[in-house]
Write a structure and sequence with these properties.
Elements (H helix, E strand, L loop, with lengths): L2 E2 L15 H4 L12 E2 H8 L5 E4 L4 H7 L6 E7 L22 E2 L2 H4 L2 H9 L3 E7 L1 H4 L3 E2 L1 H17 L4 H19 L4 E2 L2 H9 L4 E11 L2 E6 L5 E7 L1 H9 L1
Parallel strand pairs: 1-2, 3-4, 4-6, 6-11
Antiparallel strand pairs: 5-10, 7-8, 9-10, 9-11
Helix pairs in contact: 2-3, 3-5, 7-8, 9-10
């Protein structure tokens, strides 16, 4: 099922898909897929056994939390920030050294929704794959070679299989991206997806997140069952997505 924010009110809003990055993925020749309100989809698809991965602002999750009966077993969010007092000095990126709080786009895009999601008892387990780690994860030539090898292996096994098609599409798009931007691309949401598949991809600390003057931070809080990333394992990350 496919859901979108405030659907169908947003159906006619203009979205810019003309950038080189989006063009790299091509367009479906089929008609537009059926779309529903995202909060309704979440309400009907989520339960105590489900995992939800979020990126961007939490408009849809915030809306779902206002609906009677919404329950979720595990939420893996790309968002939040862990700094001084949570992340050991040797694991802090240079640009975050000594920082306790930092602006974050995803949680900052809808602060009330993020606060509601972090506080609710309707979500059993909460994991934040945070800015302090995501900004060190980059899709580079080494990653590109690994993806290419995975695409070839999947094509040999099942040429029209979903993994072969998906890996091939990604590799083609990123080939063009690296041609234009050889420095690579930060991998924010893919790291959150990898953690959803294997939590040991990131080293996690149990915390309480807070928002202070529009910036997010966290403090150690045993027993909260809210976890945030302080480091990641590059080998496990790649394995979680490609194997």
């Amino acid at each position: 099922r496919l859901g979108a924010q405030d659907w169908p009110t947003n159906a006619k809003k203009t979205v810019n898909l003309s950038t080189s990055f989006y063009k790299g993925f091509g367009r479906s020749h089929a008609s537009e897929p059926r779309c529903e309100r995202a909060d309704k989809v979440l309400l009907e698809c989520c339960d105590e056994g489900a995992t939800l991965v979020t990126g961007a602002a939490l408009h849809n999750l915030g809306a779902a939390l206002k609906m009677d009966g919404f329950r979720l077993g595990r939420w893996v969010a790309q968002g939040g920030f862990a700094g001084e007092g949570v992340v050991p000095g040797g694991k802090q990126m240079d640009k975050f050294q000594g920082k306790v709080t930092c602006p974050t786009w995803n949680f900052g895009g809808n602060i009330p929704a993020a606060q509601a999601a972090l506080a609710t008892e309707a979500i059993a387990r909460k994991i934040c794959v945070s800015k302090n780690v995501c900004h060190s994860v980059v899709y580079d030539e080494q990653w590109h070679e690994a993806l290419g090898a995975a695409a070839q292996a999947e094509t040999r096994k099942e040429p029209r299989g979903s993994r072969a098609l998906a890996f091939g599409l990604m590799h083609k798009a990123m080939e063009e991206y690296l041609r234009r931007k050889p420095g690579g691309k930060k991998l924010h949401d893919p790291l959150a997806l990898a953690v959803a598949l294997d939590e040991s991809v990131c080293e996690l600390a149990e915390v309480q997140l807070f928002c202070q003057k529009g910036q997010w931070g966290s403090r150690l809080c045993p027993g909260s069952d809210v976890w945030i990333s302080v480091d990641y394992d590059a080998i496990k990350f790649q394995a979680a997505l490609l194997r």
